[in-house]
Design brief:
Blueprint lengths: L7 E10 L2 E11 L2 E10 L6 E14 L2 H6 L2 H9 L3 E14 L7 E16 L3 E15 L4 E14 L2 E13 L3 E3 L18
């Protein structure tokens, strides 16, 4: 099972026709986490399938063991290694695809992640972080990557407060890169520095 995350207080408008599933105005809860989304799934070519989640919003999400256990092993491992903690909200879109029998689920996302009182370790210990990151990425069943923009309002690093931290970011299965260390993309100006 991909992302076995128990939810309750589920409501929404479900429609099923000819192998096409639609759930509009889905709302659910997991502990203090509240979830909202619209879903469409194409199940017409079993065992292949595709799930599209739009207008997604999770509020009050924590990187607790329930959440980490639901993630693919490699993604959970990276979050555990980085000691990610805090309260997060997530908004955006996500798609999941199983291309065939015995093949791993792949995914792509375009998400806005907001952090409140967050912390993590990425070479340096980050604590009391408030702000957001825009992430676009892909998981191919083995490795994942996300490219985005960091916009932190405030954070503490080694007892020093940093404010208005802005710049590009890259996260993959092995590393977190910021500023001009982010791999080049198709933009002609190249990577931007991290500024505060």
């Amino acid at each position: 099972d991909w992302f076995p995350y128990r939810i309750y207080k589920v409501s929404g408008d479900l429609r099923w026709a000819d192998g096409q599933l639609s759930i509009q105005d889905l709302s659910a809860q997991h502990g203090k986490t509240r979830l909202r989304a619209n879903l469409t799934a194409d199940l017409t070519q079993q065992p292949r399938w595709r799930l599209q989640i739009t207008d997604q919003a999770e509020d009050g999400m924590r990187t607790d063991e329930d959440f980490l256990s639901a993630l693919p092993l490699r993604q959970a491992e990276v979050l555990r290694q980085r000691n990610v903690d805090g309260t997060f909200s997530v908004a955006g879109a996500l798609h999941l695809t199983r291309p065939g029998v015995g093949l791993p689920v792949t995914s792509g996302w375009d998400l806005l992640l907001n952090a409140e009182e967050a912390g993590w370790s990425a070479g340096l210990p980050i604590q009391h972080a408030f702000g957001q990151a825009r992430l676009r990425g892909h998981y191919d069943g083995k490795q994942f990557w996300s490219r985005g923009t960091l916009a932190m309002d405030s954070l503490i690093c080694r007892n020093l407060q940093v404010t208005r931290l802005r710049g590009p970011l890259w996260i993959d299965s092995e590393r977190l890169l910021l500023g001009d260390r982010v791999p080049r993309d198709s933009t002609p100006d190249g990577p931007k520095p991290l500024v505060a």
